[in-house]
């Protein structure tokens, strides 16, 4: 796979549905599971599948993503492996931003084709899943396909949020519709007995594609007005070319909004999580930070993931993810929460100075109550703060926090004064 396949990871657009987590960073740079970034997921899937050459296409708020990739993915001088950023750039031929997924690949094609490869694997940078791309590419080659689309069976309720496909007996895609609202009964597919038993009767596109090299070059050049794969390129290709459906039945979720992001992270605390971070065959790679072990004093823990370098004195932490360098004070209770942690430790001198001035420290103070919340990085939560998310709160965007679907999101670097109640 190393010589045959080149990976291209789409960095996503503005990510407004994931705001305020995307106010200062791109979607692929959003921290997940306490120690990773979203972009680590597709990169790790590629590396585990023997695909060692990747481009990441970025446009919005890309500085932190660039820094993460630069500090993380280093390979031997004797290896051809790389993970490189391709940012939107003005050229003589094009002076505009990326206008869609296909347009992003088109604009970067002059960089991509300078490398040798037979197949190009196009991935999204904001999905949580573990897939062996080797099998997908082998099926693509066996079927003599020009495009292969990874598909996943979904229920009728979920079908309206995806591009839905129909395939023939040879798994060749015959028709496609984007986010159907009516006439769903016409799009039922034979997804297999197990999937049908779960009511998952519709084949949804996962936004994961394999293209033959020359075919992709030609189809992007044929009509430069087509800017998006899902809405324009693929529907046209299905009527003209051999497009294979590769059905995937494992865990996969599209991190599209705050609710799905929150659910995906807290789902990792389940006794047997759907996304298995402990599978050595599907290791997740990320930056090696050389942090000390976490230190926990007097805390009752249940269904909790704790990353490295934390200092925890809370009375109770339940159903929560605690990110790197999290600091939580005494007698604090945290339930149903993702605490992202911080980028640095405060020195003893800084702590003494801040305390003498009555300022809050980085982390969460004493006697706090936090429920149904996401605390972004580098926040300072004072003492006796109560944050209780839930359906009783109306959605809104405020100076220090936002509320989305009842989930309170404290903005990155926010200072929440002692005694605050949300």
From TrEMBL:
<dbReference type="InterPro" id="IPR005836">
    <property type="entry name" value="ADP_Glu_pyroP_CS"/>
</dbReference>
<dbReference type="GO" id="GO:0008878">
    <property type="term" value="F:glucose-1-phosphate adenylyltransferase activity"/>
</dbReference>
<dbReference type="GO" id="GO:0005524">
    <property type="term" value="F:ATP binding"/>
</dbReference>
<dbReference type="InterPro" id="IPR005835">
    <property type="entry name" value="NTP_transferase_dom"/>
</dbReference>
<keyword id="KW-0321">Glycogen metabolism</keyword>
<comment type="similarity">
    <text>Belongs to the bacterial/plant glucose-1-phosphate adenylyltransferase family.</text>
</comment>
<dbReference type="InterPro" id="IPR029044">
    <property type="entry name" value="Nucleotide-diphossugar_trans"/>
</dbReference>
<dbReference type="InterPro" id="IPR011831">
    <property type="entry name" value="ADP-Glc_PPase"/>
</dbReference>
<dbReference type="InterPro" id="IPR011004">
    <property type="entry name" value="Trimer_LpxA-like_sf"/>
</dbReference>
<dbReference type="Pfam" id="PF25247">
    <property type="entry name" value="LbH_GLGC"/>
</dbReference>
<keyword id="KW-0808">Transferase</keyword>
<keyword id="KW-0067">ATP-binding</keyword>
<feature type="domain" description="Nucleotidyl transferase">
    <location>
        <begin position="7"/>
        <end position="270"/>
    </location>
</feature>
<keyword id="KW-0548">Nucleotidyltransferase</keyword>
<keyword id="KW-0119">Carbohydrate metabolism</keyword>
<protein>
    <recommendedName>
        <fullName>Glucose-1-phosphate adenylyltransferase</fullName>
        <ecNumber>2.7.7.27</ecNumber>
    </recommendedName>
</protein>
<dbReference type="Pfam" id="PF00483">
    <property type="entry name" value="NTP_transferase"/>
</dbReference>
<dbReference type="GO" id="GO:0005978">
    <property type="term" value="P:glycogen biosynthetic process"/>
</dbReference>
<keyword id="KW-0547">Nucleotide-binding</keyword>
